Amino acid sequence: MASKMTPVSLQQMIKGDRTSMITMSDxxxxxxxxxxxxxxxxxxxxxxxxxxxxEDILNRSTPKVDAIVTxxxxxxxxxxxxxxxxxxxxxxxxxxxxIDRLSCEIACKSCGGGDAHATTLCxxxxxxxxxxxxxxxxxxxxxxxxYGEFWLLAQICSSNQLAKSISIxxxxxxxxxxxxxxxxxxxxxxxxxxxxxxxxxCIIEFKELPPLYVNQDVAALSTAMAHIPxxxxxxxxxxxxxxxxxxxxxxxxxxxxxxxxxxTWEMSTLAHKINSILDHLKKQLFTCYQHIEEKRNFExxxxxxxxxxxxxxxxxxxxxxxxxxxxxxxxxxxGSTKRRVHMDVLRRKNVLLLISDLNIxxxxxxxxxxxxxxxxxxxxxxQSQYEVVWIPIVDHSLEWEDPxxxxxxxxxxxxxxxxxxxxxxxEKAVIRxxxxxxxxxxxxxxxxxDPQGKVVSPNALHMMWIWGSNAFPFTSLREExxxxxxxxxxxxxxxxxxxxxxxxxxxxxxxxxxxxxDMEWIRKFTTTAKAVASVARIPLELVYVGKSTKRExxxxxxxxxxxxxxxxxxxDLAMVWFFWTRxxxxxxxKIQLGQADxxxxxxxxxxxxxxxxxEGGWAVLSKGSHTFVNGHGTTILPTFLNYEEWKxxxxxxxxxxxxMDYHSKVHSDSHPCCRFEFLSTAGRIPKKMKxxxxxxxxxxxxxxxxxxxxHNIKSLY
Length: 717
Fold this sequence. Notes:
Helix content: 55-70%
Number of strands: 12
Largest sheet: 7 strands, mixed
Strand order of the largest sheet: 2-1-5-4-3-6-7
Strand content: 5-15%
Radius of gyration: 39 Å
Shape: elongated
Number of helices: 28
């Protein structure tokens, strides 16, 4: 009968092997030995199911010092389902003999106290015909067979007499009795087993990479494949070391149990090496996944381009490609019911895709809601055939956290129309397409698809701001037709904002719109304009419309104008925002149609007004619907201050013509500068623009601007 190995002789064996491990860690000769054993016979095995079974065994077997972990019914049922598959059973049948042989070899060599490298080399010789990942998983399965049996006895020996008797033969009670003393050693073994499983999983992931997207020509994959034999070697060698440690726990008795410092160091050293290998492989794997994602995104991007160039019977292919391609969930939220719905609700309808980030303003949403609601209440049958869908765009490189989810849900809750269930449904390739093809740059856009999914307007938001539901069906052709019907008149500027002004238009009153944030200029202008109107005996109404930026300064001006009773003004800043948004939309609508520099008198006046807003005061003078002067503060105020110089022409020419003639004279002497500012996030920035005053090409500058106003009224681009 073989005698027990003494604790001293075992420690000497481990110490000698540890020295061997350190000196051989970088020995190319060692790896030449391992490569020499490799003679793959061409068989390919899907080791993932086997590894999942092994992982389950090791996770359930991992001992806890204070208590043995009990299994849960849920996990048992999961594995019962998985192991019932015919393919899985056939694989186990085919590999069970090899696993048993490996298990016996590892157990025998662990008891015999042989050299760890020699044992590892023996295992490689037994598995010479298998792939590198199969070698590793089969060895890990053999270890799990013995390791799992050991801890199964530990878990049930207190409640099963057969298990109790067998556990006594295996000296399991001795281990449980001294579990507190063994805690550092068991913890070290657990950490090493965890590292071994992580490396194994990583190597399997390399094997599972789709060859259609990544191959040996990719540097990260070729680098990893060159290192995998080394990773397999050190992981199998760690398996041998773990098996030796478990054998020592059950064969050395009480004296060896209390002297385990060297063995703990051994396990920790191996775990450190395995984790270093794992870190290197993970970096290469991450690079491979990035490469795959880029290729898949490119494919999706090309697919989107091809889809939009093709003719379809309905809009479902297009919408699924943009929002969610599968049929396994309801990807939309119905804003009216707040319930999840399928995309079939959009089939063969005109669909308006509202595309924005999570910073879309309440001003924008409130006006959209008003237009949307009016179309539902007053629209005819055709108008009821369009639906709005909010597509939220977020940066996928940022982690989706609770504050972002809350912000998204708060926005979604305010919307009456459809919205995507979650921003994470929108793929990166779709976001790229939206940015590159539809020119989305953080500011909201409204892309219109007809019932067949064809883009009929790259951004209908401009025409919706200008004409509301009258722009239906929101196509570029409809946009052009509406512009042909328009003229430079007061209603164009204020339609849909203030009914009081429209009443004054019907009454034929003189109406002066003015803006800016210089209160001194505002006081002079309003006082002088009123005085001239009194002398000329004309009915006058003054309306302050603020400024496109500097919201807080506008708020302060409104307060002063109201207190001093200087003129009519909009106390609701949403009306101020909408005035400037509509005006800017007129310019960007023309830019989108390629007509921004047409010799169109109406367009020149719109551009003048937008330019005047950038600095100082301004005013638009109208009688009823007809606007007769559009001027900067540097020309408007002198015109009224010098009324004595042109009042004699009022009786013969009329107030409007006399005022316009004198203003033209002042304007020709002053030559005010014109300036346009476009945010860098603008979707469509014109390459060049002509000055609305002199019609020469304007110079182009890059400006960095900070207005120290958290509530700037930004332009819609």
